[in-house]
Design brief:
Elements lengths: L1 H12 L21 E5 L6 H9 L6 E6 L3 H9 L6 E6 L4 H5 L4 E4 L15 H18 L4 E4 L4 H15 L7 E3 L2 H15 L10 E3 L6 E3 L12 H12 L1 H9 L7 H18 L5 E8 L7 E9 L2 E5 L7 H27 L1
Parallel strand pairs: 1-2, 1-4, 2-3, 4-5, 5-6
Antiparallel strand pairs: 7-8, 9-10, 10-11
This protein binds 1,4-dihydronicotinamide adenine dinucleotide and oxaloacetate ion.
Main location: mitochondrion
Family: Belongs to the LDH/MDH superfamily. MDH type 1 family.
GO molecular function, one term: L-malate dehydrogenase (NAD+) activity
Length: 346
Amino acid sequence: MRTSMLTSIVRRSSTTGASYVSRRGFASGSAPERKVAVLGAAGGIGQPLSLLMKLNPLVSSLSLYDIAGTPGVAADVSHINTRSEVVGFAGEEQLGKALEGADVVIIPAGVPRKPGMTRDDLFNINAGIVKSLCTAIAKYCPNALVNMISNPVNSTVPIAAEVFKKAGTYDEKKLFGVTMLDVVRAKTFYAGKAKVNVAEVNLPVVGGHAGITILPLFSQATPKANLSNEEIVALTKRTQDGGTEVVEAKAGKGSATLSMAYAGAIFADACLKGLNGVPDVVECAFVQSNVTELPFFASKVRLGKNGVEEVLGLGPLNDYEKQGLEALKPELLSSIEKGIKFAKEN
Ligand SMILES: NC(=O)C1=CN([C@@H]2O[C@H](COP(=O)(O)OP(=O)(O)OC[C@H]3O[C@@H](n4cnc5c(N)ncnc54)[C@H](O)[C@@H]3O)[C@@H](O)[C@H]2O)C=CC1
Ligand SMILES: O=C([O-])CC(=O)C(=O)O
């Protein structure tokens, strides 16, 4: 039951399209011990993400940390009869224990947007939160893979990199900005327009994670469909504005939480599979990159035993996508530089 539940989740979404069970590389029950820590676990994303990680049989230890509220979330989730042991940690004095021995740390800590705000408007509060959490990661679990969800991702990932550099623990293979929700949205919107089975849809989304920096490559989407230029432009815009669509619909009660939890769980599962040696695990993520002249960029990434095994190129772009790529670079670079400057000065 638990395996079939997760199998259906993962099978529908994996970039490589293969099923969870057949690609694990080991029989059920013999997966290695893996500790996953969720920082911000009592929040809108944190709670459903903790639930989904509890359903993942690759996790043996689930550590739920927040500044408050985690004992309740942990007690609740811990009653689910799946493999992992769940422990809740509340308050900064417990952060070290929450992180010790973690293989993967997922960070959905920080404030979400309200209508009328950009992701960059979150910078002033979230930059400090991310900086302090990453300082603790450098101290207590310097080898963990870090999945950064907190916005603005285009700046929080460079902040994390600088914090790790200062601490002497930076490994570019282990730091990921989670852009999976952009891929999830692009797949859903494309399937609806192209009238194809959403479970079979595959396409990369590259660039960054804010407005025009989100660049879905519909020319590479499979199954192929004969969509007009106008339809592709509309799909691109809807993908770029997907977060705002949810912020407006929630009308002041926050941003995407459930779809983000799903996307975060899929990405963390891909990281765990990579760590466990499953071959050909490929997902999009915002990572240190040579794909363009920008120091960080989201593209397809092959995950392996050390995190990023290979940052894959963009593949062929059509003229519309080439224009989108050039147009996003100044904004993305300035968000990256803002993050680096903050981390250097604070
Ligand atoms: N990467 C992506 O695609 C997406 C990113 N996000 C971002 O995720 C973040 C969280 O969103 P929500 O869960 O909706 O917000 P929320 O406000 O519901 O939850 C955030 C949680 O973080 C906790 N927190 C605050 N400071 C903390 C600290 N120093 N240490 C640990 N926990 C701390 C809060 O107590 C709260 O429980 C936001 O920045 C949001 O913009 C949201 C959706 C998609
Ligand atoms: O839009 C937001 O503020 C949250 C987010 O990053 C998304 O839903 O893509």
